[in-house]
Write a structure and sequence with these properties.
It is a single chain. With about 350 residues, the chain is α/β, with parallel strands linked by helices. It is built from 12 helices and 13 strands. The protein has a single domain, classed as NAD(P)-binding Rossmann-like Domain (Rossmann fold), CATH 3.40.50.720. The strands form 4 sheets. It has a 7-stranded parallel beta sheet with strand order 3-2-1-4-5-6-11, sandwiched between helices. It has a two-stranded parallel ribbon with strand order 7-10. β1, α1 and β2 form a beta-alpha-beta unit. The longest helix is centred in the first third of the chain and has 22 residues. It is globular. The mean pLDDT is about 95. It binds uridine-5'-diphosphate-4-deoxy-4-fluoro-alpha-D-galactose.
């Protein structure tokens, strides 16, 4: 197969390319405009896999360039895995138009190319954020969506709907949305991981950057939730396990195993973990003590969410292979790798 990976220099995209190159014979082409990543990501992929990735620096909202400089240059793709998107919940509340413009137009332009170049398969990065605060846990794919709160969340919800509607119009085309829960961790080698530009918002990069002195505080956002220790519950899933699900999903479609033109899967471990449990898992797997503080709740946060993942297990044959401890130890190896490398100055907030 020849696959186009959008956002291939990003956190999940780069791990997915690594999985494809390490475990399959598929050919990979990446397109990424480095809006929240950097070209060095391709060097890291090469270091780990020994293979170079052919890549394009094109903004997907620019249809003309996308068509002329990528699709007309490359021979036909067998499938597209679409990661490229803006993803900061808080930023999306402040800049909704930027989020709708970027995330929706990028996807629409890809669908136009799918139409024009007759590409048979598409995997979309969605998010458990589409469920908002669900009434019953764990959430299944039948749990009602549309209670999402942020513009970011609406770009995922709308993206799913656009893809579903598009799928119904096209013969010989199949699509899947994967609703990620909380992606964490790094490649187990410690040589590739998450590198958010500026100050991170997500828990695990905050933890690792705090532990190595890049940040001067680690605040737990609220300990007055109705959970076993008062802190919020999420379903943390290792990024390499997320990556592998894309390979399985693409192969499932291409092997014509999916009857429905469009389908959606939860992608989580199926286990709810509190913020304090994440901190303890980090301390246990690295031996580093975290001198955290308890702060107020973060605006817009939900109390608890975790996945029912039986559909992805049963249909795609996916299962999580790595634990929260693996996620913490690999994230820490990646942080130490950054500390020791010349990238340090650039990445440091
Ligand atoms: N948290 C802290 N301190 C921090 C950072 C986070 O206590 O410094 C807490 C949060 O309050 C939350 C938990 O850690 O309870 C996880 O927070 P993250 O920011 O890591 O992740 P979220 O669950 O808020 O967001 C993730 C994805 C979003 C997605 C959302 C869907 O990053 O893209 O899940 O629920 F929309």
């Amino acid at each position: 197969m020849k696959l186009l990976i959008t956002g291939g220099a990003g956190y999940i995209g780069s791990h997915t390319i690594i999985d494809i190159l390490e475990n399959t014979d598929h050919e990979v082409v990446s397109v990424d405009n480095f809006s929240n990543s950097e070209p060095a990501s391709y060097d890291r992929i090469e270091q780990i896999t020994g293979q170079k990735v052919r890549h394009y620096d094109i903004d997907l909202t620019d249809y003309k360039r996308l068509k002329e400089e990528l699709f007309e240059v490359e021979s036909a793709f067998d499938g597209i895995i679409h990661f490229a998107a803006l993803k900061a919940v808080g930023e999306s509340v402040e800049k909704p138009v930027m989020y709708y413009h970027n995330n929706l137009n990028s996807q629409i332009n890809l669908l136009k190319c799918i139409e024009k170049y007759d590409i048979p398969a598409f995997i979309f990065s969605s998010s458990c954020t589409v469920y908002g605060e669900a009434e019953t846990l764990p959430v299944t794919e039948e749990t009602p969506v549309s209670k999402t709160e942020s513009p970011y969340g609406y770009t995922k919800l709308a993206g799913e709907k656009i893809l579903e509607d598009f799928s119904k119009t096209k013969d010989n085309f199949r699509a899947i949305s994967l609703r990620y829960f909380n992606p964490v961790g790094a490649h187990m080698s410690g040589k590739n991981g998450e590198l958010p530009k500026g100050r991170p918002n997500n828990l695990v990069p905050v933890v690792t950057q705090f532990a190595s002195g890049w940040l001067d505080a680690l605040a737990v956002h609220g300990d007055d939730y109705e959970t076993r220790d008062g802190t919020a519950i999420r379903d943390y899933i290792h990024v390499s396990d997320i990556a592998h699900a894309h390979v399985l999903a693409m192969e499932y479609i291409v092997a014509q195993k999916q009857e429905a033109v469009y389908d959606v899967y939860n992608l989580g471990v199926g286990k709810g973990v509190t913020v304090l449990e994440v901190i303890k898992a980090f301390e246990a797997s690295t031996g580093k003590k975290l001198d955290y503080t308890i702060g107020p709740r973060r605006a817009g946060d939900i109390e608890a969410i975790y996945a029912d993942n039986s559909k992805v297990r049963n249909r795609l044959g996916w299962e999580p292979r790595l634990t929260i401890e693996d996620a913490m130890s690999s994230a820490w190896r990646w942080q130490e790798h950054l500390n020791a490398s010349r990238d340090y100055g650039k990445a440091r907030p």
